[in-house]
């Protein structure tokens, strides 16, 4: 009789330059005989690790490590007040090291920006990286319509109008309606997740990859885009990013939230690439 995977939820203390920096909630799903390296899942903005619950269930042979980024879900706020992208990258590095020191990483949206920053700094922690629709705007035509959207979003956030910023985000990304209802776990910390995103993570608008470091790392990168995102800036920037990152591209079912909305199909395609 096959044994069920072992589920454990553990806190992980992250130390920064001046002491404790964050305390992360980390969920481990470990099958009796894990296949390959751990698969670390990094969620995007406005959500937490529950975004990947169905995706993780579709990868029963892999050890899954999914964590709530600082200020999200059941993780603590930044204990040292550091909400920077570099602090987020240190968090991810700590998660990978605690999982064994090297991993395959699947990162969605803003989480993909976090993973790319860590790849620039510590490529030895990665075997392969899947970056799913990272919000990267460099490479686009300066007159691209997305920049007007971003400017309106910046002004809304400066006035603490998070509902307006959320509307502009759904206009910018092909999010659409959820294919399946939100679970209780997804809704548990929804308000906190959104507030963290809109008040602490505006650095996402300005991230520009270090293409030389990423391309030269030798770590294979898969850049994913949803089929329903073909009219968004992700599609217009795909070729530029693939060339700069040395990445392979893949079109997935659904839109921006494909890993959540189509977990079976998306996980099958990603796991096949990770073999």
Automatic annotation (TrEMBL):
Its transmembrane ranges are: none
Q: Where is the AB hydrolase-1 domain?
A: 39-268
Give this protein's Gene Ontology molecular function annotations: catalytic activity
This chain's protein is named Pimeloyl-ACP methyl ester carboxylesterase
């Amino acid at each position: 009789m096959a044994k069920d995977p072992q589920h454990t939820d553990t806190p992980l203390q992250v130390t920064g330059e001046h002491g404790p920096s964050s305390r992360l909630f980390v969920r481990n799903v470990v099958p009796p005989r894990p296949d390959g390296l751990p698969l670390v899942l990094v969620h995007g903005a406005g959500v937490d690790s529950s975004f990947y619950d169905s995706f993780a269930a579709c990868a029963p042979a892999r050890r899954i490590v999914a964590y709530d980024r600082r200020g999200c879900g059941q993780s603590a706020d930044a204990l040292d007040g550091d909400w920077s992208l570099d602090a987020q990258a240190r968090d991810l590095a700590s998660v990978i090291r605690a999982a064994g020191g090297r991993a395959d990483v699947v990162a969605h949206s803003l989480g993909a920006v976090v993973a790319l920053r860590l790849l620039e700094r510590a490529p030895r922690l990665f075997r392969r990286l899947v970056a799913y629709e990272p919000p990267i705007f460099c490479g686009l035509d300066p007159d691209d319509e997305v920049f007007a959207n971003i400017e309106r979003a910046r002004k809304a956030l400066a006035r603490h109008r998070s509902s307006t910023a959320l509307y502009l985000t759904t206009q910018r990304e092909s999010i659409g309606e959820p294919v399946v209802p939100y679970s209780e776990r997804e809704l548990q910390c929804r308000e906190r997740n959104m507030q963290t995103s809109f008040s602490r993570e505006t650095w996402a608008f300005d991230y520009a990859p270090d293409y030389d470091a990423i391309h030269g790392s030798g770590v294979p990168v898969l850049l994913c885009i949803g089929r329903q995102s073909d009219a968004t800036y992700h599609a217009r920037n795909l070729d530029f990013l693939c060339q700069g990152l040395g990445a392979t591209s893949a079109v997935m079912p659904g839109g921006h939230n494909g890993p959540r909305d189509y977990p079976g199909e998306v996980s099958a395609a990603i796991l096949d690439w990770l073999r």
